[in-house]
């Protein structure tokens, strides 16, 4: 039986106002309290040029249907993937039309804010080709890829292997007779897996496979391999390829798997810029210097660290704006009023909420500035390496590994905390935090698992410490690590001099504290390993702690350096003042959270830790009036945030109801399942009622 | 242009084995190391009766297509909702056929493990009617709801109001002339929001609205209101109702909104068991004793705490089984071998992984047993209240609020940590952890926001402390709180006597430590408020810390009590031994994580904290051989886990590939968007190549 009325009537909300005071009024109050110029801080953080470009591109995207962002809330995976293809195609067209640079496309993707099928073509396929191709291969692969005549991915991870590249199973055996390589997947676990852009999109792949020549295993090497027909996109014979299925996020990209069945590729497939396999003889010619590629990893990681900062900034923007509007309970000690009537207190006025959210704002600025420091240091290091000076590389590489690990973990935790700080509505996708969280999740695992990375960093710290003890380190080549480790070795029993909370507001004191605590951890670990004979595996918990201690120091130092080195032209007095407070909040709140390590090292006393705790709350209170302006200065347009709660204008509840009116279930009066699943029971009841009347 | 080949060929994996050793072999090794009987521990934890029922129901569900669980991975929201309706309908039919009890249905939902459209009918509508209806209403509403002739929900939260019920905006004005109530939504923010089962399913609702009589506001009261036609399911005139749109999880249920436009309901709609509005005069008759309803909240929260334990248990089951199979890197100090060849080390053998995962196993057992203690105490309290003794209620209510807050936060954190401990594959929905996480998220917000709840608990602790100082507490009525607060007051300068790590393995020492630390926090807070004149708002950060300290003590104590009070028949010596180790691990790891508070209170010294840290690692090593068996004892069937990684048999990689073959994108050789979005660029390249040949 079909219902007899017109069922296709969309549900509309009545035209009512939210209960006063309204969002725009409350945000207006907040913004009037700013002690600094929002635009000036934005310019300091991003640079004027970047902000101009961003605004220009934003206007283009907002006018293009291919970049519309609301529909994604309501679509299933297939529809979202199709829309992502459309966006990729339109991006290529606009790039060609408007002559977009790489940085322009970075801004496009930042604003559009969703992985898409071509992503790995840009982020891994092209850069790998650029770095690893010889001249012939540049023409054959790279230049065609630049024109999108071939679409590629980077196939390294396998079903059974992620972090340990040396354990990869896929083989590439050199066949001298035909001057080919035979790529093969010997086990089910050898299947390439998780490879973005591979599942349904790519027709080429850079494949990492163990190079086998005359029975000898030379370990994993990159091959550029055609995998699908350029005519009709069918997988080539010998290749099994497909999508790995639904994920927690990232469902707008086709992460794929691929298996090879004795698949032959020509000699030219072996990427030969650094390493060669001589045709015919199969002679293996080693690379000259592998260290150069570590430099690139630093840059990749600086990008990830910057992304972590933006994730925190975005979460804080949504949560702080909404917290200024959302009201719960009346604070009886200090009731808030609106037009002479007591109103419920905006949740931003509760100290617990301020403590949670302002520390995240501080984290965001800290991480963004640290990524900029990292990029600057990368530039210096590249210059030095060109001159043959590799002395900065190890320190930079170690810090960048650890910072990737620490800041991505911080970002996820902070983003989720922001979501919860939005109360129930944080759980709605209309908060704009749902996809952001889901799509950010893999960052704690990929580009180096966060736990595995800590081992790299700590190994370097231990090595440096041992070398300092042995007097082997050239003290001319000072860097952050040698500096704080030397200071500790010179004075291992130093203690914190602060006798009041205000004395903690001192960069030197703070850096000494973080340096001492990191060095103490390193020293303890060296003792465990070298004197107490413990195995590496048995101390892994401390290895991770030491890495974190080091990286927190790097973050704190970067923040202070960034402010100190800014010219008066770049950073006005009021902007400098608020950043200084944020840097203190970042440093002291970080110290407070891990205060046990500062206490156990003997550097801080219990009494001092109480002063510290109070000082953090004082800083929060000091920064509180700038809360909304500090997130405004992150300069995220509403298009980017795609959030009903985080809108710049504060019309939160109107936005929520507008989104809800678009929900597909609300386009019909009676839900599809009614006849089959609900009606039988309800009508049984009506029947019973009628029967009892008889 | 259409591709000319048959595109509808599903992708199949080649028939290959994973690289040896295989999952089943590795799990077999793990299981052979168990020091205790897995079934015996399961029986102790759940009771034999429950396990039997679970097995019986499991067999039924596995045979019913309506309860199939794989398809959900691949479905969009609409399909998943329809399938959920089907499941609800079949559950009702099977309940009627097989005479399922409430506990049977609890098991059904536990195993099926997904919210469904009728959920709130059972969890809120029926219980509210049962508790709040007078005899006439029981017949009119409750009995019909039991037969599913009416389907209801519980409409309390509003767009602008969650935690603060007193701030609700919806009004119900008594109209003496017609003996009706007029329900009305004055603002946009008055819209009911988040109401499960309301969006598209319910035809009735219990609506919380401010009772207005003769211009006087009596605050929120419950009304049972028809909202949709029983004939054709259309919303009744005066009601705007619909679904609130997509959420982070919970998308298989229709959380809804509802607005009333001067909507009239008859006098009988006012739920009148405790409170009455006299017909005609509108005289308001107050409830006799509201405290009785706090008892029910304790039971609800005990259920939530139990659920938190199961969430932790499930995460640990998946992560530990998979960690025994997944191998990464060779541990050079102690290489693992298989058939005389060195293999990569299973990640469970890395101490960092053990530390992460075994502490979660300990948390899981701690929380499950604490929920059982809470339920037992609820029973005792109900008996006492019936006798007019309300002396247990406040303590029980305070602890249950705090435990809800603490354990749901622990559960989410632990579940996410388990997901990350699975490496890359943890991000696949086939890990079985994705939906689990998404659907569990709201627990930190609903049934009392976790931050707001801490205030309830801490308020009680402060009141008790002040009352003890004033000598007002009847020391005959001892409970946990008065005991540890009194001990502290008697001896506020006591310190920890341990001089070796092993001395921490002592329940009395541990309980003293947790009691001291909690009491110290309470004392400090009382001083801040009562002596230093600080406002409640200014100390909220410490309020939350104090609540956590109290609840950790409750958890630790419950664990020890549960073991100590178990008879030898219920708990054999080996099972007792392993539980004892877990209880120590739980207590000491919890202490270690918050060791700063133990240090600052002066109870623990820095040297002792080092002993503690080492003791935790020793406990982890002690428990390690039982890792897989301890999660086996949680007794989760594969049907429940729905996880490729957590399967009992260990065939992880085969399961991953089987799931992947079901992915809709893999049913076609060439992806749908190819012609439109990929081909133009690739064929432009072919054209260029042909042109250059000319």
From TrEMBL, chains A, B:
Subcellular location(s) of the protein: Peroxisome
Annotated region described as Disordered, given as residue ranges: 1-22
InterPro entries xref list: ACOX_C_alpha1, Acyl-CoA_ox_N, Acyl-CoA_Oxase/DH_mid-dom, Acyl-CoA_Oxase/DH_mid-dom_sf, Acyl-CoA_oxidase, Acyl-CoA_oxidase_C, AcylCo_DH-like_C, AcylCoA_DH/ox_N_sf
Cofactor: FAD
Keyword Flavoprotein: yes
Range of residues in the leader sequence: none
Residue ranges with Polar residues bias: 1-10
Acyl-CoA oxidase C-terminal domain: residues covered: 506-682
Origin superkingdom: Eukaryota
Reaction it catalyzes: a 2,3-saturated acyl-CoA + O2 = a (2E)-enoyl-CoA + H2O2
Coiled coil spans: none
Record-annotated Acyl-CoA oxidase/dehydrogenase middle domain positions: 153-261
Keywords: FAD, Fatty acid metabolism, Flavoprotein, Lipid metabolism, Oxidoreductase, Peroxisome
Primary location: other
Family: Belongs to the acyl-CoA oxidase family.
Protein name per UniProt: Acyl-coenzyme A oxidase
Organism: Phascolomyces articulosus
């Amino acid at each position: 039986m079909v219902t007899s009325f017109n069922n296709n009537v969309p549900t509309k909300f009545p035209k009512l106002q939210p209960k006063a005071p309204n969002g725009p009024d409350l945000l207006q109050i907040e913004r009037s309290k700013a002690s600094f110029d929002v635009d000036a801080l934005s310019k300091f953080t991003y640079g004027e040029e970047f902000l101009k470009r961003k605004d220009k591109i934003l206007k283009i995207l907002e006018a293009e249907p291919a970049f519309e962002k609301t529909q994604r809330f309501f679509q299933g995976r297939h529809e979202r993937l199709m829309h992502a293809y459309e966006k990729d195609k339109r991006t290529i067209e606009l790039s060609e039309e408007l002559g977009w640079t790489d940085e322009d496309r970075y801004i496009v993707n930042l604003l559009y804010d969703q992985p898409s099928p071509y992503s790995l073509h840009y982020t891994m396929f092209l850069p790998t080709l650029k770095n690893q191709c010889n001249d012939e291969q540049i023409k054959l692969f790279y230049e065609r890829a630049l024109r999108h005549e071939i679409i590629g991915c980077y196939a390294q991870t396998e079903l059974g292997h992620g972090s340990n590249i040396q354990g990869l199973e896929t083989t590439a055996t050199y066949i001298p007779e035909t001057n080919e390589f035979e790529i093969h997947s010997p086990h089910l676990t050898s299947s390439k897996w998780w490879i973005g852009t591979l599942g349904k999109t790519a027709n080429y792949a850079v494949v990492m496979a163990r190079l086998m020549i005359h029975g000898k295993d030379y370990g994993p090497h990159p091959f550029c391999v055609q995998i699908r027909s350029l005519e009709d996109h069918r997988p080539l014979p010998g290749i099994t390829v497909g999508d790995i299925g639904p994920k927690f996020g990232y469902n707008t990209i086709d992460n794929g798997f691929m298996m090879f069945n004795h698949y032959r590729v020509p000699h030219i497939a072996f990427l030969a810029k650094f390493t060669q396999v001589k045709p015919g003889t199969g002679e293996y010619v080693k690379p000259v210097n592998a260290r150069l590629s570590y430099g690139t990893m630093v840059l990749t990681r600086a990008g990830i660290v910057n992304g972590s900062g933006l994730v925190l900034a975005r979460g804080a923007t949504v949560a702080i704006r909404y917290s200024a509007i959302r009201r719960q309970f009346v604070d009886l000690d200090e009731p808030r009023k609106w037009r002479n009537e007591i109103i419920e207190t905006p949740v931003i006025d509760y100290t617990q909420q301020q403590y949670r959210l302002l520390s995240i704002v501080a984290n965001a600025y800290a991480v963004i500035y640290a990524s900029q420091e990292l990029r600057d240091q990368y530039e210096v290091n590249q210059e030095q390496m060109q001159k043959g000076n590799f002395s900065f590389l190890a320190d930079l590489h170690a810090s960048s590994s650890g910072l990737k690990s620490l800041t991505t973990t911080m970002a996820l935790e902070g983003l989720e905390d922001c979501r919860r700080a939005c109360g129930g509505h944080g759980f709605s996708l209309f908060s704009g935090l749902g996809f952001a969280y889901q799509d950010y999740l893999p960052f704690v695992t990929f580009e180096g698992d966060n736990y595995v990375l800590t081992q790299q960093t700590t190994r370097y710290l231990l090595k440096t410490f041992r070398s300092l003890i042995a007097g082997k380190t050239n003290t001319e080549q000072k860097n952050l690590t040698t500096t704080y480790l030397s200071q500790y070795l010179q004075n291992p029993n130093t203690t914190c001099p602060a006798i009041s909370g205000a004395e903690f507001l001192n960069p030197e004191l703070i850096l000494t504290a973080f340096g001492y605590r990191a060095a103490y951890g390193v020293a303890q670990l060296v003792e465990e390993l070298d004197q107490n004979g413990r195995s590496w595996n048995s101390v892994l918990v401390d290895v991770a702690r030491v890495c974190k201690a080091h990286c927190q120091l790097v973050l704190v130092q970067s923040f202070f350096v960034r402010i100190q080195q800014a010219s008066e032209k770049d950073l006005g007095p009021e902007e400098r003042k608020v950043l200084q407070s944020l840097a203190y909040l970042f440093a002291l709140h970080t110290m407070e959270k891990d205060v046990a390590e500062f206490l156990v090292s003997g550097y801080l006393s219990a009494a001092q830790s109480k002063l510290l705790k109070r000082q953090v709350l004082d800083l929060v209170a000091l920064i509180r009036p700038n809360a909304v302006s500090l997130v405004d200065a992150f300069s995220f347009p509403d298009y980017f945030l795609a959030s009903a709660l985080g809108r710049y204008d504060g019309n939160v509840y109107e936005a929520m109801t507008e989104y809800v009116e678009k929900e597909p279930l609300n386009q019909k009066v009676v839900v599809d399942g009614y006849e089959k699943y609900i009606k039988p029971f309800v009508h049984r009841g009506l029947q019973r009622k009628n029967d009892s009347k008889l």
